[in-house]
Specification:
mainly beta, twelve-stranded antiparallel barrel, eight-stranded antiparallel β-sheet, 32 strands, about 40% strand, globular
Length: about 550
């Protein structure tokens, strides 16, 4: 009996509705399941992430298959297929990516290595497989439920650290940041070509992305585009090219698969055409990553009892495809203010000194301020933990501008005369709550109170005298204290807690004439605390969320 090989089996499929006699062509089926020892499959069933259920049986010589499929809408159709000649495989078959697992089987209460298992099922849909079972021609049976890396099982990579565009409609608030903010409106550009760039918090192998059409004017929908990925923002590898695309409805989300993903932290969508309008628009862009960490299931050899079976996914190397500079005619992001950038903070997110722009816009011109972040407290609770009086808390609408160079925006919202008391501004973005203290009345000792009862918290302080420092604590215990004057990144990074080390790497360094090459600048702690809590916001973002403000001290 022949055994499973490295060959991908390809079947050209047709489908027939239950009330029709006509067979219509549909997407081909690519299959490879087995551990290299089992016989070739006799039948196969699988369920994808979107709920589609499929089952097929194969002829003994593997030249044909027949089965059925239940779609997400509840429709049931017959499917049948003919084996394709490998020399005439459909486009994408040779580059199809599956899962490879290092497996173990349980025997008498102990786990033993069971070799590698290769799983590839591609039925043309965008949703990945989440459950499958098959049997081979000698009677062996396998059943797997793929496990997720994250407890939630959600493959969304999370909100990008930053997003920016070659054009946007700022006066109407239709800016690029809306694309990743579920509560916001849309992005609009007064051109039929535009570029969007997204930077993630860490390099991720994105294998699908989702575009959502906006609320009106279908002729503004993108119809042609190129998606690229980059590890440095200079060299880009083409990941996906689409043309002739359309959206049948408003607010419709369409998912697109990347045939050969790579591990990148920057993704760029160059939109090269739409459906006839001189303008472009989108409601949302999301990036998805295959979050399979492994599987649990069983393996039953013919004539034997079933045995527990498990596997850990073996990460595949990225394709050996060279990256290239962007084309000379590629749109460039708008740059309206003097800014700098670091690995986690692209252009238009830092001012020329290296301070996150949202902080520089909140602060007075001569800042002496503190930023606290805490995971696990609401804004009012965080203010109370800092010793603020709840009776003085009030909702805050930030003024359009500071009245003078000595006032902060939170202070102006309260009508506080500079120097009389501090203004504390609190809000929540994502999983983290922040408290901005415009006068530095709170300090590092407060980090322990914020982090009590199993929470994580950090505090960063900066004074006009260039005293800069950061404290990080978990469960009321200080795990790190950093003074910029004593910070040596090469020496100190390896000893930091994991998420703080990642935050400082994202913060990077900003070159100044008075610093040696690689020496930390005085705003690095403020960048690190923002990177830790994912605070890649703008003041306009703050205006769209509930804020509390209170006088203090």
């Amino acid at each position: 009996m022949p055994s499973v090989s490295d060959e991908v089996l390809v079947f050209r499929l047709s489908r027939r509705a239950s009330d029709s006699a006509e067979w219509l062509p549909t997407s081909p089926l690519l299959v490879q399941v087995g551990d290299g020892k089992s016989a070739i499959p006799a039948h196969l069933s699988w369920v994808t992430e979107d709920g589609t259920q499929s089952s097929v049986a194969f002829s003994p010589d593997m030249t044909s298959c027949y089965g059925h499929r239940r779609t997400t809408s509840g429709d049931v159709v017959e499917i049948r297929g003919e084996r394709d000649d490998r020399r005439e495989c459909p486009e994408g078959a040779d580059s199809a990516r599956g899962h490879e697992f290092a497996t173990e089987v349980e025997d008498a209460g102990d786990w033993h290595p069971a070799g590698r298992l290769r799983v590839l099922i591609d039925d043309g849909g965008e949703a990945p497989v989440r459950w499958l079972t098959w049997g081979d021609q000698t009677g062996n049976t396998f059943s797997l439920a793929l496990r997720s890396v994250s407890p939630s099982g959600v493959p969304d990579v999370g909100d990008p650290v930053s997003v920016w565009a070659s054009a946007e409609h700022r006066d109407a608030g239709e800016v690029a940041r809306n694309l990743v903010d579920a509560s916001a409106g849309k992005w609009f550009a007064p051109h039929n070509r535009a570029a969007l760039e997204f930077q993630l918090a860490r390099p991720i192998e994105v294998d699908r992305y989702v575009l959502t059409s906006a609320d009106d004017a279908p002729d503004r929908d993108p119809a042609a585009w190129t998606l690229r990925g980059s590890a440095d923002g200079q060299l880009w590898r083409t990941l996906d090219i689409r043309s002739g695309q359309s959206f049948g409805e408003r607010h419709q989300s369409r998912t697109y698969r990347i045939a050969e993903p790579g591990i990148y932290d920057r993704y760029r969508l160059d939109i090269t055409g739409n459906n006839g309008s001189p303008h472009l628009q989108l409601e949302a862009v999301r990036f998805l990553a295959d979050d399979s960490a492994g599987f649990i299931g069983y393996r039953q050899r013919a004539g034997h009892a079933p045995a527990a079976y498990r596997g850990i996914r073996i990460t595949q190397a990225a394709p050996d495809t060279p990256a290239e500079p962007l084309p000379e005619d590629a749109p460039t992001p708008s740059r309206t203010t003097p800014t700098t950038s670091t690995p986690g903070f692209p252009l238009n997110t830092l001012n020329s000194q290296g301070l996150p722009i949202w902080l520089s816009e909140l602060a007075s011109d001569d800042p002496h301020h503190t930023l606290h972040v805490v995971r696990g407290l609401e804004p009012a609770q965080a203010l109370e933990a800092l010793g603020a009086n709840p009776q003085l808390f009030q909702p805050c609408e930030l003024p359009a501008a500071k009245p003078d160079r000595w006032s902060s925006l939170p202070g102006a919202a309260l009508g506080i005369e500079p120097g009389t008391s501090a203004a504390l501004l609190a809000g929540r973005i994502g999983a983290w709550t922040f408290v901005y203290d415009d006068s530095g009345f709170t300090d590092h000792d407060d980090t322990m109170s914020l982090s009590a009862d199993g929470r994580a918290a950090a505090t960063s302080m900066f004074s006009i005298n260039a005293d800069a420092s950061l404290t990080y604590a978990v469960d009321g215990t200080q795990l790190a204290w950093i003074d910029v004057d004593d910070l040596d990144l090469k020496r100190d990074l390896p000893g930091m807690p994991d998420e703080l080390r990642a935050a400082f790497r994202a913060a990077g360094t900003v070159a100044h004439d008075y610093l040696k090459h690689g020496q930390p600048d005085y705003d690095i702690c403020m960048r690190a605390i923002c990177a830790l809590a994912g605070l890649s916001c703008t003041v306009e973002d703050l205006r769209r969320i509930p804020l509390l403000v209170t006088p203090f001290g």
